[in-house]
């Protein structure tokens, strides 16, 4: 490769000013994401506030229903991925790979999500921000009869959640467990303990 052929480099092999600027912006953004990781309640509260601002904007402007519908479908897909296990038990044979415990006496295996909580929050927030930006452009304000979109979304939500719940029941997993169950009991000496 000759000088200046790689992306973001000038003729003399040094990073260009534009590439250095966007690299720095990306680093600052990643730093803020890393700092916000442990504060899940604050992150979700900010996302809900952003959602409320978006909904108020759509209500006041009386438009952009297609954008809102697309945002709802995107959030539904994210939610389904959040509820689904990383390894789909329906695709595994009995002896192949890790499986979810199906009996009380089996070893505890934590539920591993296909879409982790942080990525769910980050993607949902980015979707809301992009939808908010779309409301500033009239090209995305397609005239539609919004009650049909609402009814279709409700039907789609119900059908999708019914299918997901059936899958959860069939393969006996619950995506909201927070650790191994603990039982109080007595040891050999008669002392009460919690394991």
From TrEMBL:
Cell compartments where the protein resides: Membrane
Pfam family, one: Rer1
TM ranges: 40-60, 66-83, 144-161
Membrane-related topology note: Multi-pass membrane protein
Top-level taxon in the UniProt lineage: Eukaryota
GO biological process, one term: cilium assembly
Swiss-Prot/TrEMBL keywords: Membrane, Transmembrane, Transmembrane helix
One GO CC annotation: Golgi membrane
Family: Belongs to the RER1 family.
PANTHER family (UniProt xref): PROTEIN RER1
Primary role: Involved in the retrieval of endoplasmic reticulum membrane proteins from the early Golgi compartment.
Protein's recorded name: Protein RER1
Organism: Seriola lalandi dorsalis
């Amino acid at each position: 490769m000759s000088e200046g052929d790689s992306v973001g480099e000038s003729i003399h092999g040094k990073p260009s000013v534009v590439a250095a600027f966007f690299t720095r912006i990306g680093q600052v953004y990643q730093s803020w994401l890393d700092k916000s990781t442990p504060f899940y309640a604050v992150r979700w509260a900010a996302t809900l506030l952003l959602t409320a601002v978006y909904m108020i904007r759509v209500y006041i402007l009386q438009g952009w229903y297609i954008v809102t519908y697309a945002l709802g479908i995107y959030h539904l897909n994210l939610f389904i991925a959040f509820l689904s296990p990383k390894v789909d038990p329906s695709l595994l044979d009995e002896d192949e790979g890790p499986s979810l415990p199906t009996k009380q006496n089996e070893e505890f295996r934590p539920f591993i999500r296909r879409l982790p909580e942080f990525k769910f929050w980050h993607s949902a927030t980015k979707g809301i921000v992009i939808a908010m930006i779309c409301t500033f452009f009239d090209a995305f304000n397609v005239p539609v009869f919004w009650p049909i979109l609402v009814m279709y979304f409700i039907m789609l939500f119900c059908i999708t959640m019914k299918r997901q719940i059936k899958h959860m029941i069939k393969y006996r997993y619950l995506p909201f467990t927070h650790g191994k169950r603990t039982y109080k009991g007595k040891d050999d000496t008669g002392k009460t303990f919690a394991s």
